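Researcher: Quick test of sequence recovery. Tokens follow.
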């Protein structure tokens, strides 16, 4: 009886503190917010740096250094916001994110995710439980977070890099089959309410595997945008094409068959990217999972070209490079997806308004 009372009391306490151990809270809410933190720091910094270098504006390059330097804190605060942290916990996560990202190395994003979640929940538990909350809450959040980061972040980073390296090695070894697998899976992740950008960043996914990931994301975004044009017109085209195909998730739940055309296209464009055009993502890894969202994926491929030229791996950007980028990211998804959807519409698998968005 005593144990039951304690269990009920613990559940009530955690509910009062809004500490919810669930796949949705961590795998969807926190991971999705983490991607926004990445975008508001590393990604936007990369875009600013690219424009600065190409236009010869040094001040933009200087600004980009500060934006990219805030990556860890930005991700941690975004995660804390998604977990509904009180202000003192949220602000304390700035330190935690900085430590986790630095200690996690190239696998910093995954380290930040794990460490920030733990630190945030510890902070929420002690928040406003004492009369010296202004001291106890940040103290517990920062100490717990940094200790976990010191103990776990290097290991988490090493594991993430190992997994990412294995994927990239397998893609180099088997560009056709891995091109299909990476393209389809990352594209699906982009449309699901999880973060493909965060996954690619956590695994430091670049090279041919990064190129396949870009292809898969573009197939979903441009594919859904053009396939649903008759229902959503120009607003839907822009919202999905340079926004996110995640807008279709509700429709996919109601009729999963609408997901077939863009997914089939991703299985085509992925190996074309890896085998024919040798399209690589050698920019920021997070860009591998962004597709055409703000054209971040394309900017990432372009910055990779520039970097390769600077270090002597590439002599210049060829017309074949541009042709591959345009075909893989825009033209093929825009043409093939509606074509594959036609027989499904005729068979009644996709009906009128199945792709309609509430815009």
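Model:
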């Amino acid at each position: 009886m005593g144990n039951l009372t304690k269990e009920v009391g613990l559940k009530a306490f955690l509910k009062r503190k809004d500490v919810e151990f669930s796949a949705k809270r961590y795998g969807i809410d926190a991971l999705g917010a983490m991607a926004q933190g990445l975008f508001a720091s590393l990604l936007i910094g990369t875009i600013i740096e690219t424009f600065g270098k190409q236009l010869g504006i040094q001040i933009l390059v200087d600004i980009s250094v500060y934006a990219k330097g805030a990556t860890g804190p930005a991700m941690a605060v975004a995660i804390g916001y998604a977990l509904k942290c009180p202000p003192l916990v949220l602000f304390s996560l700035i330190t935690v994110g900085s430590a986790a990202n630095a200690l996690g190395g190239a696998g910093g994003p995954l380290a930040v995710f794990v460490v920030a979640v733990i630190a945030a929940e510890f902070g929420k538990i002690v928040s406003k439980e004492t009369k010296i909350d202004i001291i106890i809450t940040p103290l517990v959040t920062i100490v717990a977070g940094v200790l976990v980061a010191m103990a776990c972040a290097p290991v988490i980073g090493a594991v993430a890099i190992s997994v990412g390296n294995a994927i990239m090695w397998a893609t180099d070894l088997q560009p056709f089959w891995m091109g299909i697998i990476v393209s389809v899976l990352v594209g699906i992740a982009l449309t699901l309410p999880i973060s493909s950008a965060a996954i690619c960043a956590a695994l430091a996914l670049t090279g041919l595997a990064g190129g396949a990931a870009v292809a898969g994301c573009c197939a979903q975004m441009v594919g859904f945008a053009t396939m649903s044009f008759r229902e959503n017109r120009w607003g839907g085209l822009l919202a999905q094409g340079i926004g996110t195909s995640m807008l279709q998730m509700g429709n996919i739940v109601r009729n999963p068959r609408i997901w077939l055309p863009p997914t089939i296209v991703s299985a085509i464009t992925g190996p074309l990217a890896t085998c024919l055009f040798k399209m690589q993502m050698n920019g920021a890894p997070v860009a591998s999972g962004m597709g055409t969202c703000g054209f971040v994926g394309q900017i990432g491929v372009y910055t990779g070209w520039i970097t390769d030229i600077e270090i002597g791996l590439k002599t210049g950007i060829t017309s074949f490079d541009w042709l591959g980028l345009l075909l893989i990211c825009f033209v093929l998804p825009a043409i093939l997806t509606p074509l594959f959807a036609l027989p499904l519409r005729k068979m009644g698998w996709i009906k009128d308004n199945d792709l309609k968005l509430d815009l």
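The CA atoms of residues 69 and 202 lie 17 Å apart.
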